[in-house]
Amino acid sequence: MYKRLFIGALATLALSTNVFAHGVCEVSPLHHDMESIKTHLKGMASNLKAGDNAEATKNVEQVIALFKDARTQTPYLFTEKKLAGDELAKETAKYQSVIDDTINVFSSLEIALKNNDSDKVKTLLGQIGKQRQIGHSTFKADC
Questions:
Q1: Kindly report the CA angle at 132 between 25 and 27, in degrees rounded to 5?
Q2: CB of 56 closer than 8 Å to CB of 113
Q3: Are 140 and 75 in contact (CB under 8 A)?
Q4: How far apart (Å, rounded) are the C-alpha atoms in residues 55 and 81?
């Protein structure tokens, strides 16, 4: 009886480890910021398709504010890797640099939207995609 219970508990733990790991990522403030950024980017894309640069600009402003907040957060990957001391400081500086570069691209996008410069907007959207790839490939934990 106890063997079955023990084996059942072990099987449950083995199968649910991914669920527990993902749950840890989901409760972080950084995860919340990134989910909110995704929502605002979808809104911005919809606004751009509709030709509403004023509303797109509002979404960009929200994204910039969220990235500024995300800059103060610690990626879960750093906790997962158990970074500390100089190594943590070095990785945090890299993370903040990528966030700063991303904020600069969005600030340029805000200006382009206000100036109705559609060519610049298209270029900057491509740069945003590159920044996303850099950030996610470097700092996103596999939750």
A1: 15
A2: yes
A3: yes
A4: 40
